[in-house]
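Q: Got a minute? One more chain.
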Amino acid sequence: MSNLVCDNLKIHNNELYFADRSTKELASKYKTPLYVMDENTLRQNCRKYTESLKKYFGNGAKALFASKACSFKRMYEIVSSENMGVDVVSVGELYTALKAGVNPEDMYFHSNSKTDEDIEYAISKNIGYFVIDNIEELDAINRYAGKKGIKQKALIRITPGIDTHTYEAVNTGKVDSKFGFPIETGAGEFITGEAIKRENVDLKGFHCHVGSQLFDSDVFVRSADTMLNFVSDMKNKFNFETEILDLGGGYGVRYVESDPYIDIEDNIRQVAEFYKKKCSSLGIKEPSVRMEPGRSIVADAGLTLYTANTVKIIDGYKNYVAVDGGMCDNPRFALYGSAYTVIAADKAEEKCDFPCSLVGRCCESGDILQENVMLPSSIKRGDLIAVLTTGAYNYSMSSNYNRIPKLPVVMLDGNDDYIAVKRETLDDIIRNDV
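A: Always. Here it is, folded:
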């Protein structure tokens, strides 16, 4: 019997249930491979942030959904209805959020490499805030805002120089990161002075983000400490009053049994206690806080269902179970070696005594979903396999590699289920071919 890592999972009569729904019935109704998402868990995760930020930081604090974790129209509708703003990193995400009815004033546009077209488009759509990452971007925003006759609100992304000891690929707070302006080199101070000078930029404060899959408040406390010292320095240097301080996101989730549980509310409480004391000791007004959860909103609200196609036993060497999906719908193992929990969803109470690599259908040696998986020795073609905690960075990073159509997203809402994203067809694959 496999381990369950999320509260919305249970096993009944040898079968995996997700959000109290039969995975076998869902697979039969919608076919596999299939993304399934639990709307109730999504909303609960949103409220952990919105309510905790309000409780401990005050009414001015706001949670922003880091939409790169999972971007489609219904997702924006849900987080917006839960009183979250959104951060976007491309005009594609911005366009999708607008089509979902999100107020552009509640959007924060990130990215370290915005084109002139990106900036002009966002300004034309009345984007709330830019998060400025380089001086060329600052100048472009100033230019296009001037053409429109407005002062564009903005934050500056600052690199606090903190090592999170997380995956190197998602560690974004070190001095030599591609993101932001480091404090240590003086670049943070320089760009602040430059932004203040720009006639058509309304600098509101600062942003930082130091990494992902973080399981306690320590990194956020260290970030707040460094950033509030910087806020105080900018007040002394430029008489600049910081209105907003965005501490970013990064709280982790349970992918495997060894990952710890995390109490979001208690972590926010700890950060807020430090934050208020630090502002008081520095003699500065408390900037309004923003936090940017993404993974911790959507990851445990999702799982992926596959059908086993092949069980290959190479005697004396290795076993493979190949499914009808793969790196085209979840590239995270190929990219990061990311750990996942795998369950034989229709044999969930059977002894797991068959070691194997769970692999996909792509013509690529690196098409691996997970190594060292234990499944029942009875596993065979046609069996249902679930990969847990796939709500974050699966759909949003999916591709058409090998011209494989993208998976649908089915949303569960109590006893109801509905399609939030349609399964791609073969015609969709060639839609843009000429």
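A: Confidence is low (pLDDT under 50) at residues 166-173.
Q: Perfect, thanks.
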